[in-house]
Amino acid sequence: MTNCHPGLRLVYLAFMLPAFDLRGAAEEMEKESIVMAQAQVALAAAEDAVQHPGLRVAMIQMDVIDGDLAENMRRAEQGIREAADQKADLVCLPEAADLGWLYQKAREDAQPIPGAYTDLLSNLAKELKVWICGGCLEKDGDKTFNSAILIDRSGTIVLKHRKISTLPKLTAHLYDAGNAEDIKVVDTEFGRVGVTICADNFNIVHPQKVADQGAWLLITPHGFAEKQEDLLDNGVAFINHIKNVAGKTKLWVVGTNTALSEVAGGDWKGYLHSGASTVADPTGKARVIGRFLEPDLVIYDIPAAPHPR
């Protein structure tokens, strides 16, 4: 166009400039359409994703014999094997399932982690390809703790919690208190989970820390005990306790309690444990409850949940 008449050049430019603008606008619209399409695909994927998959939980409601490590190990192994036979993904034991949470020689007989009892659980987890969470008394230097561990299918301890609310008037001579700042969660094949122990949950701040760290599931070994004449009320109180924790934190809660397990010494000598192990959902509804007072193996399938939009 360098040799064209100046007037024609103006006409040409006047004609072409809008075309260039339209072409640029069309390209921008195309880019926006691609971005919007990608966003829609990502949103659809997020909506299809699950907050957690389905999970088969087994609660081994044991009769823990005060101080009898060998027998308690035998009972724990039997329950774990039965749970694995029923295709459980996660097997849960009660509080201090090795020696009993009010065992009067706890400071003498507690073992380190790892130790003989936790090695048994780790070996079973690896052999049977199950997750295991169980309570035990832990020796660490000159301190003793009421602890719980979570073990993965390879037999690796992936999380440890030390009981914080130890009821010191009852247990100060038995073990030391853990630190609330140490409450942690862990990412697993079935989502993020946390662990607390029994009276820790009387202060809702403790299980709430598990929820605040993005967990959907709280595994919590228990040892609810009472005088024999008050055991029924104790069992009802335990169920309501688990429901309350679930409803307030919006977590699924697996509360495995001991059953029978007579306290052999101390201020609560002769007290029994009520059982009634409970799984409660985030609305605070009990989904399954174990037998009152009797040992039991309780299986429950927690359904998969879609991720919140």
Describe what this molecule looks like in 3D:
- It is globular and about 85 Å long.
- Helix content is 35%, strand content 26%.
- It has 309 residues and is of the alpha+beta class.
- It has 7 helices and 17 strands.
Helix content: 25-40%
Which architecture of the largest domain per CATH? 4-Layer Sandwich
List the uncertain runs.
1-20
Count of folded domains:
2
Strand order of the largest sheet: 6-5-4-3-2-16
Average the pLDDT over all residues and give the rounded result. 90
**Percent of residues in β-strands:** 25-35%
- N- and C-termini, Cα separation: 58 Å
Structure keywords:
single chain; 309 residues; alpha+beta; Nitrilase/N-carbamoyl-D-aminoacid amidohydrolase; 6-stranded mixed β-sheet; 35% helix; disordered N terminus
What's the helix and strand layout?
Elements: H1 6-48, E1 50-52, E2 55-61, H2 69-85, E3 90-92, H3 106-109, H4 116-128, E4 131-140, E5 143-151, E6 157-162, H5 168-171, E7 185-188, E8 191-195, H6 205-212, E9 217-221, E10 225-226, H7 231-249, E11 252-256, E12 259-260, E13 272-274, E14 278-280, E15 286-289, E16 296-302, E17 305-306
Parallel strand pairs: 2-3, 3-4, 8-9, 9-11
Antiparallel strand pairs: 1-17, 2-16, 4-5, 5-6, 7-8, 10-13, 11-14, 12-13, 14-15
In short:
By secondary structure, the chain is an alpha+beta fold.
